Amino acid sequence: MPNTPKETIKGFFEAYLGQRDLAKTLSYLLPEVQWVGTGKHEIVRTIGEAEEALKAEFAAEPLGYTLRFWGEKETCLGGGFAMYFTHLAVSRGEDEGKPVTLEIRVTAVCREGKIASIHASVPTFLQEEEEYFPMRFGERTYSELTKAVRANAAQLLYRCIPGGIVGGYMEEGRPLYYINEEMLSYLGFTCDEFLQATGGLLVNCIHPQDREKVKERITAMLDSGDFYEVDYRMLCKGGQYIWIHDIGKRVQAEDGRPVALSVCYDISDQVRLHQEMEQAAVELQGKNRELKELANNIPGGVVKCIFGGDLRTIYLSEGFCRMLGYSAQEIALGGSFYDFLWEEDRTRVQSELERAAEDICAKGSSLSLEYRLRTKGGSHIWVQETKRAILEDGVLYGYSVLMDITARHEMEQKLKVSEKRLSIALDQTTNLVFDYHIPTKQISFTEGRYQMDYSTLENVPDSVIQEGRIAPESLKDCREMFEDIQRGEKAASSEVLMRYTGEGPFVWVRISLTTIHWEDGRPVTAVGVMEDITARKEAERSFLKEEQYRQAMLSSMDAYGEINLTKNRFEKISGLWETYLAVKGTSTYQEIAEANSRRFVHFEDWDNYVSVVCRENLLRSYAAGNREIHCQHRRLNRDNQMVWMLLTIHLLADPDSGDVKALAYLKDINREKQRELELQYQAKKDPLTQLYNKGTAEALIRNILQEQKGSHTFFILDLDHFKEINDTYGHMFGDIVLSQAGKVLSQLFRSSDIVGRLGGDEFLVFMRNVPSQELVLRKAKEMCNAVSKLFEQDKGVFCSVGVSCCPEDGRSYEELYRRADKALYAAKNNGRNQFVLYREVEHGSQEGSFQLTNIDQEEPGNASGLSAVLERRYLSEQLLDQLDAIVYVSDPETYELYYVNRAMYSSSGYAEGECVGRKCYEAIMGRSEPCPFCTNDWLGFDKFYIWRHYNEVLRREYILKDKFILWNGKKARMEIAIDPNTLAE
Where is the PAS domain (predicted)? Predict the structure, then answer.
């Protein structure tokens, strides 16, 4: 027996809404069934259409509902048909402890247990288009959720806009269309509080005194376009008002109604400052002294000019000067105010002032202008000028208050860009926008906007990683971003190296995800934006590389400068050259280079330095293809010390302007240069006596003989019995004798004379431009006397001297040397300890010789002999105390100091005798334990071990000569420390 209409209807809805069973649901329908859903266009006319509709609905919403029927009524229609009406309550889940329920009214016509026609309706506004049955209900329907998704996508784009956004319908009172969270937060309202405070009308958030002005302003501007700008006061929570600048556009809402959409930002401080300054300007008319005092203490600047013409300046406040980076003393009055304007703005400002001149002069109104001023550094600032004209003593003056609006102008530019960006984004975005369905991990790209090979991607991110779309270095960041979203984070982003297609190139993409949640907090989907940042990444990488290279290079430099040679000016200065900054703004590069070169560069290097850095020379070098120039010179460093420095200049053309530019670097090379000079010096000098070596002395003498005519004298000096001194008392004492002999010889003669060591115990002296024979004899006598007095207590060291004269005895080096040597031989044969002139040898006469006591004539056992001197320790110490070099003697086993000479005490600050008995590594090296670099293992008695070392106690580098000696009959270590700077001197 067929079901009754009641059983049929209840069975149908149990299968349809409760069990979500397609086959069972269709079993209750006649083939020609007509079914009208709750939406506007949801109608099916056959069971086939019903099956297709139900399949789609069950796939989108598979879960069932709880059903409750009441108010049933059955009516018999005849012919086997019956009409059945019932109320149906459909429930699912809970919201705050209560089931979420939807009430439906159902009317159906049945025949023999089947439904021929059915109609369902709801008494609320929950229904949306394309729904046969409400698929979402409660406080948020599926359509509302879709709107939320779209709103969140827009919100993601709004974040780049500084300030707040508000929109209202262009109807009476401007009913609220939209206000973003940033605007609400800035005003201090919640959404409900704002609606309550304004009644949902934007006109109520405008100050009553401003409403008519705002209305007229917007109406007037929209008559000629879709954009408007207006300033007014806006209501904040608590009843106070702020000044805002409103930049808006007329757009169309979804329902076709016109909307005014605005970007607003707070200008209260600017308005307040502007009002204060304008009031101050009016009050200070005719009060020049008071004007100056006030103008110098208010923000911005005050300017007084003769109105008209070139606006000749009468007064410029200190604030105006400060805005441009000048001191008050650097700007002269009487010039044209237009000279301060940025060149590109001059014509416009002049035109605007000429057009407004009549209103300013005749009506006493003010003029507001915005333009750029040129700063001292060559850049510009934006200012807002309020100008009034005042007649004083028959002369019309212009008074202006200028405020630096650079920051505001930059913000306005950014707002305009943001507004344009928002406008474009609302229509279409150049970025890739997609939805990430969190439960299924599926990505769906916006229709027509995807660049991938598919409009949808499954199992993201695993699938794209497996396909090789993500570069290995970005795998971790990509996974973590999606894991954050899966965990319920509100937002996540990452910069990923990926490719859009399987075979495409890798590009850098910034992916941003914003999560949308269900009412219960469960994440449902995320709106994603993909932005190609490849160009930025490459620029960052290139910049970082260049910056690291530049910083690495600059870190070793003492100064750096960028010079525009075409414009003859410095563009950047740092390091030592910062002293040029005082004149950088008012002088040319050439003037700065010449003036400061004279101040800082060594006078001997000045001519060469100036010729190198000369602007014309650098331009010629660039034209000739030279791109790198070097110049070594001496100059003062930060410690006011004259040191060697290397100037390196790179020449290049500016790719934009074509100007020839120079990048100049200054590097301290003093240590390297000193070593180089020291090596050059050592190549010319005898290391023991610091006199010229034989080769250098010979070359210098040859040059003099070749280039200069005149009377010159050639001396050869030989120490008597020097071999016996070395053999008997060791080479150390022999070296002391040679060193002291060289020292006294260099003191006897002029700096223009040449004193050298020929080798062994032989020395030569070439005295140039000798005025008389008497001087020759006196100098020869002084040489013998000086050597014999080296060790006054015994007078045990003597010398023999041979003398030849130019031109009498020869004009060449060979002739003079040979004849002086022959005279020396004669002195030796005649008993030593005397000098002999060559002409006396030639004439067989010795009458001019000078005889001193010969060392070989001392009686045996005479305590004044050299042997006695060297055998007495106190006198050997006396010899060492005469040396400029530091000498100390220590026990090589215990490191105990036996002796330290006076040079060490005078250099270190120790009291004389304080070091003896202490460890050498403590007193000399400042260490608490033996030196790891100690040379004891390499020393012997036969020769010196020579090395370099920086002494931490004396804070300088020394050349060290170490060897073993006998000290009071015991093996000892002697070290001689020589300051390289004294060698150079």
Answer: 171-225, 287-360, 872-918
